[in-house]
Amino acid sequence: MLSDAIIDPDPVRLTAVEQGWISLTGTGPMLTATQRHAIIGAARAAWEGADAPDVALGPAGEAAYWMAIDAGGVTSAVVGDLEARGLDRFSYLEIVGIVARLSNIDFYATGLGGSRPSLPDPDPAAPTGDVAAGAILADMWVPQVGPVRAPMVLDALPGEGNAFRAIHEPMYIPFHEIGNGAYADVLTRPQLEYVAARASYLNECFY
Questions:
Q1: Quick one: pLDDT band at residue 49, thresholds 50, 70, 90?
Q2: Which of 45, 108, 130, 170 could form a disulfide with 50 if both were Cys (CB 3.0 to 4.6 A apart)?
Q3: What phi and psi values does residue 50 have, to the nearest 5 degrees?
Q4: Which long-range contacts link 197-200 to residues 24+ away (Cβ below 8 Å)?
């Protein structure tokens, strides 16, 4: 992966991306690998300028499409309509995680001048059904466990939550350093936060 990149990737981030891609393209808690690949295709089509979701993918494809290009326009009513048409909240939550992690991987690859990773042959295994006990519908319109904070938004699906953090930390900041204003990587903490704030604004993330 990223053998064609113009800029050499950081080894730690490259490892996170490679492992993240394996996790992302495999079988999920609610969706098969084939279904997850379709979600990846729907999000990529949206980023490439598709005018509308692929109707053949149904509500799941719609969720991926709108999450990719207009996350700020996804309201409680939109999610409720998707659910009414057959997309349960846990599957919707899985799609949120897929699109979020895909954006991290794809735009990291292309930002370094490389190509987006190609989809492997899908694993034929059935979904794992790995769902946290006690998850409740929260203000984010998705099932939640524990404190409702952005880094834990996927934790009703434990494997997805862990996978999200495994790529989020190398790309941003280790969670145990969040309160450390003097933390620095290649960038200083103020520089990191400026980039994060700008990216959040452009992606309509107002958490």
A1: very high
A2: 45
A3: -55, 135
A4: none
- Beta bridge pairs of residue 143: 137
Do both 24 and 111 map to the same domain? yes
Whole-number Å distance between alpha carbons of 92 and 79: 8
Alpha carbon of residue 86 to chain centroid: 21
- Going by pLDDT thresholds of 50, 70 and 90, the confidence category of residue 206 is low
Residues 103 and 19 in one domain: yes
CA gap 97, 159 in Å, rounded: 11
Helices 58-69 and 89-111 cross at an angle (nearest 10°) of: 40
Tell which phi-psi region holds residue 140, choosing left (phi > 0), alpha (psi between -120 and 50) or beta.
Answer: alpha
Distance of alpha carbon 72 from alpha carbon 186, whole angstroms = 30
> Tokens 């990719």 — which residue?
68
Q: Which domain holds residue 76?
A: 11-130
Q: Which of 96, 130, 164 is the last residue of a domain?
A: 130
pTM of the model: 0.92
- Which of these three, 111, 130, 149, is where a domain ends? 130
- The answer as to whether 154 is a domain residue is no
Structure tokens at 118: 């190609």
Q: Are 98 and 64 in contact (CB under 8 A)?
A: yes
Closest CA to 130 of 168, 158, 149: 158
